[in-house]
Amino acid sequence: MQKLDDMNILDSSIMNFIISVEKVAHVQPNNNIEHALLILIKSGYTAIPVLDTSFRLHGLISKAQILDSILGIEKIEPERLQKTLVSDVMTSDIARVKDTERFEKVLSFSINHPFICVESNEGSFLGIITRSKLLAYLNGFLHGNKRKM
Ligand code: 2BA
Known about the structure:
This protein is an alpha+beta fold. The protein has one domain: CBS-domain (Roll), CATH 3.10.580.10. The protein has a four-stranded mixed beta sheet with strand order 1-6-5-4. Strands 2-3 form a two-stranded antiparallel sheet. The longest helix has 18 residues. The protein is elongated and about 60 Å long. The termini are close together.
């Protein structure tokens, strides 16, 4: 089979795959983790981005991190839900790229990350690229291309 990089797919604009900011569930760093847990449960997602009021990306927060943070020595301590802030629990070690990044880069990030955050050059959060969108595109491309060969 022809190599993928001979087909220019690795140079595709990543903006073809973005889920734009208005469709992305998110919380703010100064929300408490009770609010974050409610958003996570209602949206159905495992983890979502943390954005400030200027739509700058601070990190991501997951159900597992929240549950871990309310775990006491021998019991769950739900009273911590209201007292603890998202900024105390979130991780800032996330997959993030600029909107000018190449497809190849997000594809390699998606091996270890279910979604990748996309920012403008000025640092505004633009949206996310999910592993499923990348795989769907790759699958369509390979099948479409196979038929042509
Ligand atoms: P997860 O929450 O672990 O979700 C894994 C996959 O489960 C999703 O893959 C999707 O196929 C399905 N899924 C989960 N919750 C769903 C829901 N409420 N409605 C429909 N399908 C649902 P992807 O769509 O590839 O998303 C990968 C990851 O990207 C998600 O991982 C989540 O962390 C994040 N994500 C996706 N869309 C998002 C959005 N609109 N807002 C915030 N985060 C999003």
